[in-house]
Each structure stands twice: as C-alpha cells, then as structure tokens.
Write a structure and sequence with these properties.
It is built from 10 helices and 9 strands. It has 279 residues and is an alpha/beta fold. A 9-stranded mixed beta sheet has the order 1-2-3-5-4-6-7-8-9, with helices on both faces. The two termini are 32 Å apart.
C-alpha cells in the first residue's frame, strides 16, 4: 500500500492509502482513522460505507467521527464507493445513480460490469486483508453506512454475521428490489433474475437470517428520498416478521445530508464500541 495523505487528528492519525485491488481490477483508495490507542497495539475497527456519488473522503471530512473514535479507541476504515480508473465502465448516460460512485456493494454478473464491479468481494475479503497490515484488529469489527452504503452495511452484515459484532445505518436503501435506485442498479449489474436481486436486499436477507446482530438505524423524517427510495417501513416490517430485533429511530426534521450524520455519529460509534467491548 502507498500512503498518500496523513493528518494528525484528536491525538490519532487520519490516513489515506492507495493499493491494488485484484477483486476490482484497478487501483483503489481508502481512508483510515487510527486513534491514539493504536500506538499501543491493534484496535477494533468500524467499516464505513458511503452513499451515491461519494468517495472515501466525504465521511472523513464531513461527519466529525474522529473525536468519537479517539474517545473509544476505535479505527474507522472508509473505502471508495466503486471501482475507478481507466477501463472501468461508467453509466453511458452519465447518471449519478449507476456506474462510477454507485457500486451498490454487490458482485456484478452482467457485462461489461462484472469484470470490475465486485464491491462485495472487495469489502468482505480484500479490504480487510489490506487493513490487517495496520495496527487494526480486523477480527473485532463492526460496520455502518449511509444511504447506498447503509444498504451495503446491512446486507454485508446479514450475510456475514460472524465477521461483525454490530451493524448500523443512516437512511439506508431498505429494499433496492422495490425502489427506482435499486431497480436500475440491480437490473443492470445482476440481470433480470429476481432471485439474484434478493441476495442483496436487506428485507429478503433478514427473513433467512439465523445469527442475529445488534442493529441500529437512524432515519430523518424530513428526508426527501424517504418515501420513494428508502422505505424504512419495509425494513421495520421485514425485521418484525423475522422476529429479528431492530432499533429504528425517526429523527424529526433531519434530512439526507451529512448534517444529519454528524448529529448522530457519536451515538452510532458508542453503540458499536459497546458491542466491541470498548465500554
């Protein structure tokens, strides 16, 4: 890995690395916050998955998470949201909700996407292997995300419950099978087989889950995407039917922005810290 940026922050270090990602067939960049406790040895890690149009930098520059990570002794790893670089295909229409910046944390099966758009494999396998070279205890991990990244965090956690101690999300896309963003992405990346879509839909995955994780979801009730794209009502219904505990909080007056995330990220980090044994 090549260190390309480093800043002192709350006694720790906010770093940025570039490395070759074989699963994606391109170079990738990710950010990592190492709290001051990492100077004494490996610390637990929270993976943060960002939403549509974001890179690894949005969260680390806007959420204000470093102060809470330093307080609890928790590393935060924030990857990019899609493969990048020469030869990586983009939406031919140039839309923001597909292609570059919109990997949807799945493994594409359709051409021309399947060569590079394998974000699921990258997040689950290759990124933790890269992070393991740092003072990070990758065996003690939690996962969180926003919007498309909230969808990614929930689906990845439900499919890998023994890899994570807890999962949380801000305004997640609850059921991509049943919203315009998801229908476009799943249809193009995965084709027309609805069974393949269900493998990346939280509301479908929770019905077959056997191992249960602590789950926290925050949703702003002034979010302009609430009714058409996010559908937290479907999330609550699916968890209730599966008898799977879910803490879903509606936050009055909050929208879809990073102002919303910054307002509650301290509570989410404290939630994960408890389940990672840091409190």
């Amino acid at each position: 890995m090549d260190l390309i940026d480093n800043h002192k922050s709350f006694g720790g270090e906010q770093r940025r690395y570039r490395h070759r990602a074989d699963s994606l067939g391109c170079d990738m960049v990710f950010s990592v916050y190492l709290p001051p406790q990492s100077e004494q040895g490996p610390v637990p890690v929270l993976y943060w998955l960002s939403g549509l149009t974001c890179t690894d930098e949005n969260f680390v520059t806007k959420a204000g998470a470093q102060q809470y990570a330093a307080r609890h002794g928790l590393a935060i790893v924030a990857p990019d949201t899609s493969p990048r670089g020469d030869g990586v295909p983009d939406d031919p229409e140039g839309s923001y909700d597909f292609g570059l910046g919109a990997g949807f944390y799945l493994n594409a099966t359709q051409d021309p996407w399947r060569r590079h758009y394998r974000m699921y494999d990258y997040i689950v396998e290759e990124l933790p292997a890269a992070v393991a070279t740092l003072p990070v205890a990758t065996g003690s991990a939690a996962i969180s995300g926003h919007s498309m990244g909230g969808h990614g965090a929930l689906t990845i956690a439900l499919k890998n419950p023994r890899r994570f101690c807890s999962v949380s999300a801000f305004a997640p896309i609850a059921s991509p099978m049943r919203c315009p963003w998801g229908e476009k992405a799943l249809g193009r990346y995965l084709g027309g087989d609805s069974a393949a879509w269900a493998a990346y839909d939280t509301t479908a995955l929770v019905a077959r889950s056997r191992d249960q994780l602590p789950v926290l979801v925050d949703q702003g009730d002034a979010d302009s995407f609430l009714e058409e794209q996010l559908r937290p009502d479907l999330l609550q219904k699916a968890f209730d039917e599966a008898d799977y505990p879910l803490t879903l909080r509606y936050q009055p007056g909050y929208d879809h922005s990073y102002f919303f995330i910054a307002s509650f990220i301290g509570e989410h980090i404290a939630f994960h810290a408890r389940h990672l044994g840091l409190e």
